[in-house]
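Z., the sequence and structure:
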Amino acid sequence: TTAYRSVIVFGSVRIIEDEEEKRIAVRKLAVKYAPEQTNERHDEMIDRTWERFCMLEMSIAHMTGKVGSALVAKK
Protein backbone atom coordinates (compact mmCIF):
# COMPACT_ATOMS: atom_id res chain seq x y z
CA THR A 1 0.00 0.00 0.00
CA THR A 2 1.02 3.59 -0.41
CA ALA A 3 -1.03 4.72 2.63
CA TYR A 4 1.52 4.78 5.43
CA ARG A 5 3.44 7.00 7.82
CA SER A 6 6.63 5.92 9.49
CA VAL A 7 9.27 7.34 11.79
CA ILE A 8 12.70 5.91 12.57
CA VAL A 9 14.54 7.21 15.62
CA PHE A 10 18.23 6.70 16.44
CA GLY A 11 19.71 7.38 19.84
CA SER A 12 20.61 5.81 23.13
CA VAL A 13 18.39 4.35 25.83
CA ARG A 14 19.06 4.11 29.53
CA ILE A 15 17.17 2.41 32.33
CA ILE A 16 16.04 4.89 34.97
CA GLU A 17 17.19 3.24 38.18
CA ASP A 18 16.84 6.13 40.63
CA GLU A 19 13.52 5.52 42.43
CA GLU A 20 12.58 9.21 42.73
CA GLU A 21 13.42 9.98 39.10
CA LYS A 22 11.44 6.92 37.98
CA ARG A 23 8.41 7.90 40.09
CA ILE A 24 8.44 11.46 38.71
CA ALA A 25 8.58 10.14 35.13
CA VAL A 26 5.77 7.61 35.58
CA ARG A 27 3.59 10.21 37.31
CA LYS A 28 3.97 12.50 34.28
CA LEU A 29 2.79 9.68 32.04
CA ALA A 30 -0.14 8.93 34.36
CA VAL A 31 -1.28 12.56 34.28
CA LYS A 32 -0.88 12.72 30.49
CA TYR A 33 -2.74 9.49 29.67
CA ALA A 34 -5.26 9.42 32.53
CA PRO A 35 -5.92 13.09 33.33
CA GLU A 36 -9.42 12.31 34.60
CA GLN A 37 -8.00 10.24 37.48
CA THR A 38 -7.10 11.74 40.85
CA ASN A 39 -3.55 11.87 42.22
CA GLU A 40 -4.58 9.23 44.76
CA ARG A 41 -5.73 6.90 41.96
CA HIS A 42 -2.48 7.48 40.06
CA ASP A 43 -0.49 6.62 43.19
CA GLU A 44 -2.59 3.51 43.76
CA MET A 45 -2.00 2.23 40.24
CA ILE A 46 1.72 3.08 40.32
CA ASP A 47 2.22 1.42 43.71
CA ARG A 48 0.34 -1.71 42.65
CA THR A 49 2.67 -2.34 39.69
CA TRP A 50 5.87 -0.73 41.00
CA GLU A 51 7.87 -3.97 41.48
CA ARG A 52 7.30 -5.00 37.85
CA PHE A 53 7.82 -1.54 36.46
CA CYS A 54 10.80 -0.49 34.32
CA MET A 55 11.20 3.07 33.01
CA LEU A 56 13.42 3.85 30.04
CA GLU A 57 14.65 7.21 28.80
CA MET A 58 15.66 7.70 25.18
CA SER A 59 17.99 10.47 24.09
CA ILE A 60 17.27 11.12 20.43
CA ALA A 61 20.30 11.65 18.20
CA HIS A 62 18.53 11.60 14.83
CA MET A 63 14.98 11.15 13.59
CA THR A 64 13.64 10.62 10.09
CA GLY A 65 10.19 9.97 8.70
CA LYS A 66 8.24 9.45 5.52
CA VAL A 67 4.67 9.45 4.26
CA GLY A 68 3.27 7.31 1.47
CA SER A 69 2.01 9.00 -1.69
CA ALA A 70 -1.63 8.08 -1.01
CA LEU A 71 -1.64 10.13 2.20
CA VAL A 72 0.22 13.01 0.59
CA ALA A 73 -2.36 13.13 -2.22
CA LYS A 74 -5.20 13.54 0.35
CA LYS A 75 -3.77 16.85 1.53
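The chain has a mean pLDDT of 93. The first helix runs from residue 19 to 33.

Let me know what you think.
H.
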